[in-house]
Design brief:
There is one protein chain. The chain has 109 residues and is an alpha+beta fold. It has one domain: Alpha-Beta Plaits. 17% of the residues lie in helices and 13% in strands. The chain is built from three helices and five strands; from the N terminus they run E-H-E-E-E-H-E-H. The protein has a three-stranded antiparallel sheet with strand order 3-2-5, with helices on one face. It has a two-stranded antiparallel sheet with strand order 1-4. The mean pLDDT is 97.
């Protein structure tokens, strides 16, 4: 079991979650974070920290977000997706994107 970052993170990329992660399992892409399932210890401390409710335990991922389980695995292993361990400012337009849905086409790999 692991935790999964879902679509809500795309173009928001708030990094509140990385400050509380005890094992540094988050990976940062151009406009989203993902969780490396090989590093995640399922502590769940990241879930309440996410201001857009983008993080779920794998068994709780909504049906319309199931593709993000595989996507977190895939992207966390890509060379350009580096470990992030310290909080950074959110993108300037993050608040404009936080309530939008259907953002998968906005994902920059």
């Amino acid at each position: 079991m692991t935790h999964v970052v879902t679509e809500s993170c795309i173009r928001c990329k708030y990094t509140d979650c990385v400050d509380v992660c005890p094992v540094d399992c988050f990976r940062e892409g151009p406009n989203m974070l993902v969780i490396d399932p090989d590093e995640c210890i399922d502590c769940a401390v990241c879930i309440p920290e996410c201001p857009v409710n983008a993080i779920y335990a794998e068994e709780d991922v909504p049906a319309d977000q199931m593709a993000f389980i595989k996507l977190n695995v895939e992207l966390s292993q890509q060379a350009g997706w580096k470990s992030i361990t310290k909080r950074k400012p959110a993108p300037e337009d993050a608040d404009e994107w936080k309530d939008k849905t259907g953002k998968l086409t906005e994902l920059v790999r």
